[in-house]
Amino acid sequence: xxAVFTCCLGCCGDGGAGHAPxxxxxxxxxxxxHMGTDVxxxxxxxxxxxxxxxxxxxxxxxxxxxxxxKIQSTGVWGIGVATQKVxxxxxxxxxxxxSLVLRHDGSIYHNNEEKNRLPANSLPQEGDIVGVTYDHVExxxxxxxxxxxxxxxxxxxxxxxxxxxxxxxxxxCQFSDFYHxxxxxxxxxxxxxxxx
Length: 196
Description:
This is SPRY domain-containing protein 7. InterPro entries: B30.2/SPRY (IPR001870), B30.2/SPRY_sf (IPR043136), ConA-like_dom_sf (IPR013320), SPRY_dom (IPR003877), SPRYD7 (IPR035766). It comes from Onychostoma macrolepis. Residues 1-184 form the B30.2/SPRY domain. There is one protein chain. 8% of the residues lie in helices and 40% in strands. The protein is mostly beta strands and 196 residues long. It has a single domain (30-174), classed as SPRY domain (Jelly Rolls, Sandwich). Strands 1, 2, 3, 4, 5, 6, 7, 8, 9, 10, 11, 12, 13 and 14 form a 14-stranded antiparallel sheet that branches. A hairpin with a 3-residue loop joins strand 6 (99-103) and strand 7. The longest helix has 11 residues, at 2-12.
């Protein structure tokens, strides 16, 4: 009996042989290694200001992802998805095949083509929450929890959430603890090791 007790203490106790500490799962946030040269990231990787774009630190590997952006201060801004090949110093995005974004004027651009547009009376204002769903085919947008019914598609490859700002815009990113409940079947972004 003493041998069993000793084994348990040796294996499970502090610093016992064979003890491997659990790794904490990383937090999805804006990635300071993938941002424009004049971008400023604050609030623990959740707020962007300055001029340029920034990718999130997690690609959208899962089937149905959801994330949100809060317009803290208006100006020129855009939100959506992009590959790592996107030019993070060029705003507005959506000019090439590497980004699919909602722009501040309500247009959704990809490859320099307007793919869709928010309804005229639904342009996001200061304080509004824009939700984004992405299922590897379509990007859909939600304004303060309401589906805007303006899907857009066309981007290919591994994509990441992206946000850009200019002209005094300030945007906060929510990758968990959402303001609004994600649409059915959609969930927060998971790192690849969380999926398996």
